[in-house]
Amino acid sequence: MTATIATPTECPRCGYESLQLLYSSPVAGAWEVHQCRRCLYCWRTCEPDRRTRRDAYPDSFKMTAEDIRDAPEVPTIPPLRQS
Amino acid sequence: MAYDDLRSFLQALDEEGQLVRITDEVMPEPDIAAAANAAPRLGDAAPALYFDNVYGFNGARIAMNVHGSWANHALALGLPKQTGTKEQVEEFIRRWDTFPIPPEWRDDAPWAQNSVEGEDVNIFDVLPLIRLNDGDGGFYLDKAAVISKDPDDPENSGKQNVGVYRIEAKGKRKLALQPVPMHDIAQHLRKAEEKGEDLPIAITLGNDPVISIVAATPMEYDQNEYELAGALRGAPAPVTKAPHTGLPVPWGSEVVIEGVIEGRKREIEGPFGEFTGHYSGGRKMTVVRIDRISYRTDPIFEHLYLGMPWTEIDYLMAANTCVPLYEQLKREFPEVQAVNAMYTHGLVVIVSTGKRYGGFAKAVGMRVLTTPHGLGYAATVIVVDEDVDPFNLPQVMWALSTKMNPSGDLITLPNLSVLELAPQAITPGITDKLIIDATTPASPDGRGNYGNPVRDLPEADEWLTKLRHLVK
Ligand SMILES: [Zn+2]
Fold this sequence. Notes:
The complex is a heterodimer. Chain A is of the alpha+beta class. Chain A has helices spanning 49-52, 65-69; strands at 19-24, 32-36, 42-44, 73-74.
């Protein structure tokens, strides 16, 4: 297991390039958890390529800006009560 | 034998040979989920798994598949681990008769030892979160009990709710939570949002094994889960007041998270591999703000793998889905003999019933659809005669093979409600439902050529005993 962590530059799921570091392993240098600022996908750097690399991420799990925009509300927000 | 916390149950599993400790170092992903995916494939006596050597963590402890076999489910109820499926359901029904047993209020919960509040909260510091399936949008909590109250009637303990909901960790103190519209917490949230308020909640993890069972039981809106836990345990369930919200929470939990579902707010969530064996999401889901986490020293993270059935979740919502449906049907139709709603939380329901007169079995099938659980599940209902055991699928197939004539026995009801996760719906939340009447037509319904059924010979029972002796 490698102790050097390559910092990711794009979201494996939606390709967005703005990411944030969510957490670093309690054992220093083991792994980091990153999160995409657009689709909120989270991953650990030591997960398999199919979850961490854009070029290995399965097409059927990919998400686009349109998918996010058009996502339905669950549950829908009800109207405010008239008091 | 009633277990007051997860640790004493894990010890009992260990003593019964139902807990496997994995001491070699494993990767957080994909090892832990893959092992928990594989465990139920070992059969009806599959063990729970315990990991305490996870790469990159200091002293993380993760328990998986705790309820993931009929043997473990039996032990959770204090039954011998060899107890059969149908016998476990029958015992569940007997204990339900003692419902309600009020909870016992206790002080000094072990989880009160440590806590963190406000901006200091980081859920990743407390729990070794892991991903379960490849397409999951992140790290989920899917075996926590979520406690909330009716905002219009907060003092009514019957209307408080303890349920299991899908929860995604999306930040150090931010979660997403999915309230299915047919579930009680969705009613609580709707009332809070109509008033423009947040909904206070407590999320408890690593609960005693009966809390997990009652939290996954589809009870009626004004029935109290802790009072069912008392009935199932044969002793009052130990509870205590959560320090931040005052909500009643299990005394024996490993971790208690408190906060609010933020009113009138939604954010992208998922997808998540669900109990239907399919992914669902991404949808804009509720947002939870964590205000406080309390936890036992060296907490055990109990987690649940779910995927293509059967996995742990199918054991966790098998008996407890059958029994409330049985109770509700029996109230109006005492002819009902047994209910098998073990498949995908009762998306298929099999009922055996006696027949008052022709057409009666179809009425029983329609009643299934209008039970509280049937409103969100029960996409297909199969009704069989009273002498067919709904837990014996070869017998059910025999009934379908010989008692069912599509011209009069298949009833399709268009555009009924179903939970949004049901993949077969045309519009999520709306589906046609099917009642299959696989009973022998009763007078005055004269369809078919049934004549006399072939019955077991009266002497067969005696021979069965004799043969069992001879083959030993
Ligand atoms: Zn993304």
